[in-house]
Every structure is written in structure tokens, then in C-alpha cells.
Amino acid sequence: MKKFLAVMMFALMIMTQARAAEFEMVEYSAQVKLQWLAAAGIPEAQKFLKLIDRPVFFNADNLQDFERLELTNSLYQELNMQAAMEFVRENNYKNVMDLACSLSPRAMILGDEGRKVAVGELQTVCLIGDWCLEEFGSKKAIKNVWYDAYWLQDRAGMMASADSLKGEVCIIEQGVMIYLADDVRAQMYENLRDVLKKHGGCLITSDFTQKKYFTDTAAALFGEQNAPTLYNETKAMYEKVFGDKIADDLQDEQEALEFLKTHGLTARKVPLFSKPPTLHISSKLTPAQLQAVNELTRKDYLWVITAL
User: What's the domain count of the chain?
Assistant: First the structure.
């Protein structure tokens, strides 16, 4: 309880001093994805959400199409989470950087497997993350997971976090790029290139396919004719919370590859999964939806990015 009070008092102080600059982003980044992951049935996300004990953003009272949006977003977020972890396991990465990842429920899982995970987030998220780790993290997770506070355009902060890991690193970044201004996005990729050149390894992301990936996820659940509507409704939903427009550009493959090349990076596409995954959300899907989702998991939505 003392730890909780200290964390929340410090978070409130930061909120008072820099509400617009940081805490609203914390409300967005640390809570919205947690809501969807918890709804999918991810135990770690449910523990995080229960512990921070704050009202969820979206429900049937403020979203007209809530049931379909919840199922679509929950599936999409679980696919992202599970695909990243499966890539780390299959490629035997011992060191992971998880960037702007909503307290990173997957860090708990990967840390419990004996992997070192440096979570990069905003200061207030790090405070809450440290508290959650202490409250319900396993002994292995507490030993192997930590939260480093820095902005994505902060080269020194990101490099210091990377330097705390020994050996090649797998950097996970999913769902962040579309919220960044062009200059911040460019600087983030410059920083990522520098980390990869120094430490080796790769960055994995689905940001360059997110529009088609999400639309195809919606189609797997509710049919192709409903998918564009669900994408647009989800985009509007996030824009309402974010308080600004979301840039879903760089979705053309050649344009994205050129963008990466200008920042000293290259990419290859790989399937989300090498075999059909076991998903927590499966119990909420019909047999037809499950079949469509299994077909979806074989598509090349994941980009593996390395330094030139």
C-alpha cells in the first residue's frame, strides 16, 4: 500500500506539472491496449488492469458498435502480442527491448522465461510498471524485467537502455509510429538504427502493414464488407482518446522501404506465425472465425528490420 501511494502521488505530481505533455499520453498508451488484451483473456493484462484500478475508456455506453469493435481490437492486439513473443522464442533472443508497449504484459511472460526485457516507456508508465512488477511479477520476472523512462526521440535514453542488455537485441515496436509527428518518427528510426548497428539484432513491427492487417483481422471476424467500417470506427475511437489525427501513412511497401533506407535500415516480411497459434481469445470465436483467423496468421504482416 505504501508503494502504491508513493507511486500515485508522484504520478499525480507529474500530471499536475505536465498533464498535456505526458499524462494524457500515459492514459492512452498504458490503458487502451490493456483493455483490449484483458478482454482477449490475457491473464497478465487482466492483472495490470485490475491493479491500476482505473475506469476503462470504452464500453457499450460510449461506443455504438462496441461488441464488434471490442472483439476486433482484442484479437488484433493479442495477435500482435503473441506474434512478437513467438518471434523472440523461435529466434532464441535472450535480450528484448519493448518500446511504448502499454506496461508490456508480454515482458512479464518473456522475463519469466529467463529473457532480459528492457521496457521503454514514459516516466509515469514506468512508475506504474515497477509497482505492478513488484506486486505480481514472478521471481524470474522481477530479476529480468525493468522499465526505462525515455521519449522515443531521445537517442541517449534509448541507447542507455540498450546498453543495459548484453548481446544481440530484439526490439519490439508495435502500434506507435502512427501517433508520431514526422520529425519524431524519423528521429526514432535514426535511434533504432544506431542501437542495431551497435548491438546487432533486429526490430520487429507491424506498423508498416497495420491498415491492411487490421482490416483483414476485422474481415476474418465480420466479413470483408464490414471490415473498412470497423477500421474507420477504430481509427476515430483512437483519435478521440489521442486528441489528434492519426497518420496511417507509409502503408505502401515500396514507400516504406524507401523510408527505412533513408534511415540506414532494411526490412524483410515474415508471417505472423510459423504455425497456428493458441490464442486466449479463441473461446470467444465461432469455428468459422477461428478458421479465418488461422489463415490470417500465415500472412506476412510482420516486418523484420535490420541495420544496413
Answer: 1
